[in-house]
Amino acid sequence: MAAYAHISKLAQSQPATELRIVLIGGRRSDGSLRGKSSVGNFILGQNVFDTSRRTAQSEARQQEVFGRRVTVVDTPGWWWYWPTEDTPKLDQIEIQNSVHLCPPGPHVFLLVIPVDLHSSQLVKASLKQHLELFNADVFSHTIVLFTAVTPSTYEEKMSRIRRNPVLQWILQQCGDRKHFLNLSNREDRDQVKKLLDKIETLITINGGRHCSVDRSQGETLRKEMTDLTERASKRFDQVQKQINKLKLQIEGRLQVLFLIS
């Protein structure tokens, strides 16, 4: 604990001028405003990510925050209780491609989890599978970011987490690194400042290294995305042609019936 406190002080005395953050995590069907896009807006202090729709593509946005140039990459979410095989291939590629949108690589992954998420073994299995989309060292660069929209004390939040073995397992994998954000109080910028301090501490612990990124993989992913998009476009055109053909056939039959009558 003393060693961690020393590293934390060292990080704060030598603040980074640039922080690169990738937001990862699942999504829910209840229209929750505690998702990754809301977190990205909260951190950057601007509504730069669209929260009115599902994130379909990884997107990078940059702002100056507390004297640092902060890049945040928002990613498509997976369903918390579903395995990777049920996540669309294009979503998987977009998630993988996120690390290539903040070159030379992200300093930290923020695993965004609503503090009231019902975390079962299905969540654990899904998380393990989806994090395999990244390099093996993803956990050493991850902080768990618990989000809420209602006021609660630190002890109340921790009590909920302690009662949940899946959340305990997640924290264990991430070296017990965690932070809480109350997204309903965007005026409280101190929440963001403390988060950036924790990120800088993690960077110091990792020897200043960002998460390793394979540039050749980025080129492969972009080619896969192009191929998938082109195939989808061709299928759409084929379906549209069939619809138009069917419309013409129906109109022709209606004209015959009209003439007969």
Automatic annotation (TrEMBL):
One of its GO terms (molecular function) is GTP binding. Residues 20-217 form the AIG1-type G domain. Belongs to the TRAFAC class TrmE-Era-EngA-EngB-Septin-like GTPase superfamily. AIG1/Toc34/Toc159-like paraseptin GTPase family. IAN subfamily. Coiled coil: none annotated. Keywords: GTP-binding, Nucleotide-binding. InterPro entries: G_AIG1 (IPR006703), GIMA/IAN/Toc (IPR045058), P-loop_NTPase (IPR027417). The keyword Nucleotide-binding applies. Pfam families: AIG1. This is AIG1-type G domain-containing protein.
